[in-house]
Specification:
- By secondary structure, the protein is α/β, with parallel strands linked by helices.
- The chain contains 11 helices and 12 strands.
- The strands form 3 sheets. It has a 6-stranded parallel β-sheet with strand order 9-8-10-11-7-12, sandwiched between helices. A 3-stranded antiparallel β-sheet has the order 1-3-2. It has a 3-stranded antiparallel β-sheet with strand order 4-5-6, covered by helices on one side.
- β4 and β5 form a beta hairpin.
């Protein structure tokens, strides 16, 4: 994701900006082992960065140079605040080039910090959105009772939704977390798998367990599951329930039928929030069966209290190759 212009900059625009960092230990962390952090920033921003003692010289055209200095200052401020610095954090700082707009915050669960970032607090680690679309998504999940996250795999739709749910749960804003998926693929095979119903379903629900274990200690997750304060269940198990004082996530919603989607949405009870995530390009329903996600998107547009956030291949935060794979498939579909 380079930021340099497509046309070569004029020679007179290639100047340098000199940044001074008072704490040399933090500067070492900023540069990374063998200056790999600087190399990553150079590659993505289209500039050159030279280290001179406790100073960094940023050389490039004005636009890229100004953005790079802002990124470096923001990352240094992050280190000053005692936060770690990984490759994903650098990528996120580069992608997030504009200040965070004013959002509705729910108590102290969402923290703003230098450079317009936003942080979710969980028991194991802080979680930070890494793209503008992710920031807007998190803001809307705090500000609205029903939110939709729609886009390709790897864009953090479910991961961030679960992080928001854990954050609200820890703060006491909700009493339980309920995570659900339509067991479309498992529906044909449940009878052939060994074990009881939970043992048959758990492999299909594993991505939800993985997200929870990223935010809470494993023993605590197990205890909360036993106490029913965290529930992970197939969509079919939601019928007849009223989900009150809960944070509810429906993952892989493109595989819910229209009737299932209506059933799920009408489970919303007092004091609850609900998030629906899905990818319209990965519908596994039988041919001729309408996707409940697409119908809900059409029917609920403009309904007060409902928000829609959309992601593209540019928001992929897995391996960079995933984004390019998605773009290739999209281009092929556009030609066919």
């Amino acid at each position: 994701m380079g930021i340099s212009a497509l046309t070569p900059p004029k020679a007179e625009d290639i100047v340098e900006t000199l940044l001074e960092f008072p704490d040399n230990r933090l500067l070492i962390d900023l540069c990374g082992e063998f200056d790999r952090n600087l190399a990553q920033i150079e590659h993505q921003m289209g500039v050159h960065i030279l280290r001179r003692g406790n100073r960094l010289a940023v050389i490039g055209d004005r636009g890229a140079r100004d953005q790079t200095t802002a990124v470096l200052r923001g990352l240094y401020a992050r280190l000053e605040a005692g936060r770690g610095l990984a490759a994903g954090d650098i990528d996120g700082a580069i992608r997030l080039g504009r200040p965070m707009p004013d959002v509705m915050r729910d108590g102290e669960q969402i923290e703003m910090f230098h450079g317009g970032g936003v942080e979710l607090r969980t028991r194991k680690k802080p979680i930070e959105p890494r793209t503008e679309a992710q920031k807007a998504y998190v803001a809307n999940l705090f500000a609205h009772e029903l939110g939709f996250g729609i886009g390709p795999a790897g864009t953090g739709k479910t991961y961030l939704a679960v992080a928001v749910g854990v954050t609200l749960f820890i703060s006491g804003a909700v009493e339980k977390i309920i995570l659900s998926r339509p067991a479309v693929e498992a529906g044909e095979r449940l009878g052939f798998l060994p074990g009881d119903m939970r043992e048959k379903i758990d492999p299909y629900m594993q991505p939800l367990y993985d997200a929870l274990n990223d935010f809470l200690p494993q023993k605590q997750v197990q205890k909360l599951l036993e106490e029913k304060r965290i529930e992970i269940a197939p969509l079919a198990f939601m019928r007849g329930r009223t989900l009150s004082n809960a944070f509810v996530v429906l993952d892989e919603a493109q595989n819910a039928t229209t009737m299932q989607m209506k059933m799920f949405l009408t489970r919303l009870g007092e004091g609850s929030r609900m998030v629906i995530t899905g990818d319209r390009t990965q519908v596994d329903l039988p041919r001729g069966t309408a996707s409940g996600l697409q119908d809900a998107e059409r029917i609920l547009k403009g309904v007060k209290g409902v928000t829609f956030n959309y992601f593209t291949s540019r928001d992929v935060v897995r391996h960079p190759l995933v984004g390019r794979i998605i773009e290739a498939y999209e281009a092929d579909e556009a030609q066919s």
